[in-house]
């Protein structure tokens, strides 16, 4: 099974990170992951097909915004907050504040475990 490549903090490019954060679904994923917890892909509630979610998660990973870990057939994702904060100080905090203020990404959440 092929391991996903994650750019080192020094390899992160501002334009790639900003482009990755230019989609409301991806901003919503970042908002959900901002609590610092690792989430399984199946825990994410998004208004797109699984293949489209996979694409969005790959864009975030390739830009260095998230880290993906595979365990068997399951994939887990976390926000690379420390790496982003060290490489681009204040960027993530500003993005999250603006996203909350403008309600960007609100259509992304966590799946209800009761169902």
From TrEMBL:
Name the UniProt key words of this record, in alphabetical order. DNA-binding, Transcription, Transcription regulation
HTH arsR-type domain sequence ranges: 6-99
Tell me which SUPFAM superfamilies the record gives: Winged helix' DNA-binding domain
Q: Which domain of life is it from?
A: Bacteria
Any single Pfam family the record assigns to this protein: HTH_5
Q: What is this protein called?
A: ArsR/SmtB family transcription factor
Q: Tell me what organism the protein belongs to.
A: Nocardia rhizosphaerae
